[in-house]
User: What shape does this take?
Amino acid sequence: MKPVGEMTPLDELRVFRESSLPICVVKAPPGSGKTQLLVNDVPNWVKQESPVLVTALTNEQVDQICKRLSERNLGLQIVRFTSSGYQLRKPPPNGVHICRNKNEFPAHYDVMVATVSKLALSNAPRTFQVMFVDEAWQIAFKELLPLTRYAHRIVMIGDAGQIPPVRTVPHLRWDTAPFRPGEAMPVPAERLPELRGSTKTVKLKECRRLPYDSVELVQKFYPELPISAVALPGERFLNVANSTGSDPLDQAFMSLSEASTALITIPTDAGLGLNTDTRLATTIAHAAERLLRQTARINDGHEKDPRRGGRPLEPRDIGISATHRAMNATIRAALPQELLASGLEVDTPERWQGRERPVMLIAHPLSGIEHPGAFDLETGRLCVMSSRHETALLIFSRDHVPSTLGSLMPSATQSPGLPDDIGKGHHIHQEFWKFHSDRDRVFALSE
Amino acid sequence: MSDSGIDDVADRLRAWSAGRPLRRWNTRCVDIAEDPFVVALVRVGGEGRPAAIAYGKASSTPSVCSTPDSREPRAVAEMVETFGSALLTEFPAEEDLNSWPQLLLPDRSHLDLLHQMAFAYSFAKWPLADMGRLNTVGRLFNALFLQWQNPIQNTVLLASDALQSLYIFPASLARHGHLAFLLEWLVDHGNRVARRQAATRAEQRSVSTSLDGAFENQEIGDRLKRYEQSQRTHAPTATALKRVLEKEVLDRWQLARAAHQSIRLDDRPPNYGLRTLRSFSQRSWSRLWVLPRQKELSGERVYWRGTETDMSAVSAAEEMMTIELATQLRQEALAHGDVDIALSLVRRGKAVQGTVIASHSDAESLTVEYDNTDEIDFRQGTTYRPFGTAELQVKLVGADPSVRVAWFTVEKGTASFEIGEDIILIEYNPDFFVMNKIRNMSQQSTTALGQLLRAPLSRSGEAAAAGDE
Assistant: This one.
C-alpha cells in the first residue's frame, strides 16, 4: 500500500511535465509496469497541443506500445513510422497509421512511434515537445544523439539492472570521457553533475510480475532500489500432480509448490569451457517435457482456494533461456518439435527482455565457465533470466559454480573513477547461489 | 574459454607439432607498403619521453638522434622536433590515392611512447620558445595513435602484430609481443628445438622502448650520475651515453626493417579485400590529419581530437560508431578474399556453408541445405553475400533446423546458382546505415535537449582552436 501523501509515479511525471526540466529518468525493477506507465502518461502530454514522440529499441517493443496506446481507446491519432522493409505481423490496431516515409504522414496526429534506429536514420518531420524512450537502459548513449534533433525534452524509462548495451569494440578510450558512447542512455544524466540539475528521477518500487519470494531473490540485483512484491506469500505456485519425489528433479518440481525458484545441478565433467553444453541442454529440454507430462498446474493468484490447483500448464506457458545462441539452438534441437510448435519459446536473455512467461527454465550463465572474466561476471543477463517468470523459475547449471566463485579473486581492472562492476558482479553471483543453498533449494542430479 | 580461444590453442599446438610457425590463412592479410617509414624509440628509466630515436625509410640508412639525459625537457623537445620535421614530410597534408604513407613501428611499446609524446606536446606551451612546430608534431603523433585504433587502417603498422597476423607461432601468447623472438622462429635453424633455442636466446634482450634493467644499470646508471654532477657539461660522458643509446635504438630499427623484409618476401597473394580497405583507411586518415592540417595551414579554426579521450559527446559517439563499422567492414572484406577466413566465420555462426538445392531466378529465391557443424541460430531478415561477390545480396526468409534447410530471397543483384553448387553465404551489414546515423548525429540540433547534451562541459578543453591550449 502506498503511504498517504506519497506521490504515485504518474504524479511524479506530472511534476516533471509542469516543470521546465529537460530530462526525466524513470528507474524501475522488472515487471513493475514500465510500459504501462508510459502508455498512461503519453495522453497527458497530448493534451498540451503538440504531438509526442515515443521510441524503443526493437520493432516488437514499438508494435506493443502502439497496441497498448490504441487499447486505451482515447481516440489518439497514432503514427507508426517504420521502414519500407518491415512486415507487420498483424493488421495495425485502431487509430494507428502505418507510415513508411514522410509523404505518408497525416496532417494531424497526436503520437509518433518508431524504433530508435528508424529515427536515427531518417530526417525529422517535425520537432516534438517530448520524447519517451522505453527500455532506455538497453540503448547506448551514442544512439540518443541523432535523436536529440526531434525533441526538447526526454523521458527515459527502463530497468537499470538489465543487460547493458552491447559493445563490440574496445572502449578504453572513452572510459574517462564525460559522455561514454557505449554506456546505457540514461547513465550520464545521473552521473554528470552538469546534467543532474536538469534531471528529475522517478523510482518505481512495486513488482507485479514476480512471485513474493522471487522478489527477494531479484532484489539482490538492485541494491540501490528497494522493491516490494505485489503478489502475496504463497499466492502463486506450480503444482506438479504426479510428483513422487523419487528423484532430485521430481523433488525440485515438488518444491515449487512452496517456493518459486529451484536450482538444479548436474555433475561437472568434460565439456567445461564450451559455449554449447549438450548435456545441460538435454537436461533442460527433458525437464520441460517432464513438467508438462506430469500435468503441472499453475496457480497464478486468481484462484481463490490455492489448494484447488489452478489451471493446467501448457507449452506456451514455458520459456527457456541460455546466454549463447548456439546453446539455445541445441536446446531447441533436443525438444520435441510439437512443444515448439505449441508456443514454447527458447531464446537469449537479450530477446527475453521486456517479456514474461508463467514458467521459465534457464541455463545459469556461469555454468561451464572455469575462469569467469568481466563479461561472465556481468549480472545483467542473470537478472533478466531470473525475472521473466510469474510463477516458477528453474535454474540449471553444472555443479562447479559455487566453488569456481569461491576460489575466484576478481581483479579491479576498471579505469580510474569507474565503479568496480566486476567485484560487484562476483558478489551478486555468490549471493544468488547462496540464496538457494541457504534455503535447501539446490537439487543435484546424478548421472 | 570461448570457441575462438580453443581454435587459437589448437592452431598453436599444430604449429608446435610442425616445429615451425604455420601460415595463418591462404592470403596475405597485411597491407604493407613497399618502403614504409620505420621509427624506433628508446627511453631510460620510467621517463615518458624518448632518449633516442631512429627513423627513416626502410630502403635507406636511418637517421639517429639522442639526448644524453632525457630528464632535460628542452633537449628532448629539440630532438623530438628534429624527428617530427622528418615525420611531417612523410605525412603531408595531402591526399594521394595512388600511394599512401605508412609508419612501421617495432611493437606496441613504441606506439605507447608515441601516444605519451602526443600527450606531452600536442597542446603544450613549453619548453621551447616557439612551440608551434612541436605542437603540430604532437598532434601528428596523436593522429597516428588514433588512426592505429581503427581496425581498417594501414597507416600505422606494428611489426610484431603484422607477423602474428601472418603466422601462427608455437608459443604462449605472452611471448608474441617480442619482435626478435618472432623473427627467430621464422628463420630456418633446423628442427623445433633449434628454432626454439634461437628464439629463446633472442628473447633475452629487450627490444621494447625500455632498456633491459641490468644493462641500463651497467651502461647508463653511473654515467648519467656523472653527467648530472657535471651540470650536464661533461662532453665525453655525453658522447658515451649517446653511443649506448643510439646503438640500442638502431638495433630496434633494424629489427623492424627485418620484419618488413620478411613480410615482403611472403609469397602468398595479398587478400583482395585489402584493396577495399585501403580507401577506407585513406578516408579515416584524411579525417584525422589531412583535412584538419589543411584547414590549419589555411588559417581556419580547427578541432583537434583530444589526446586522452573525447570530451564532446558527439565526437566520442561518432568515433565509436566509426570503429564499430570498420571492425565489421574489415571482417567482411577479408572473408570474401580468403576461403579459410570465410570458413572461420562459418564456425562462429557468422556465415552459412551448404549446397544449393533449389534456385528460382523468376521468384528470385534460393534454398540451401546447410552443413555448419555447430548449430546455427538463424535470425530472419539477416542479409548475406555469397563468398567472393559484392553485387549479390540475399536475405534469410526462414530455416528448418530439423532438415537443415534455409530459404533466402534475393535482395540485390541477379542470382544464378546451380542445383548442387557448394555455397558459403557471409553475413553482410550495409555500411550506409551507420554512415547516415553519423551524418544525422553531426547535424546541429536546435532543440533544448540537443543543446544541453552537446554543450562543452567544464572539463572540456580539447576542442579549442590551435594555439588556444
Residues 421-438 of chain A form the longest helix (18 residues). Chain A touches chain B through 55 residues (CB under 8 Å). Residues 131 and 368 of chain A are 43 Å apart (CA to CA). The longest strand of chain A covers residues 389-398.
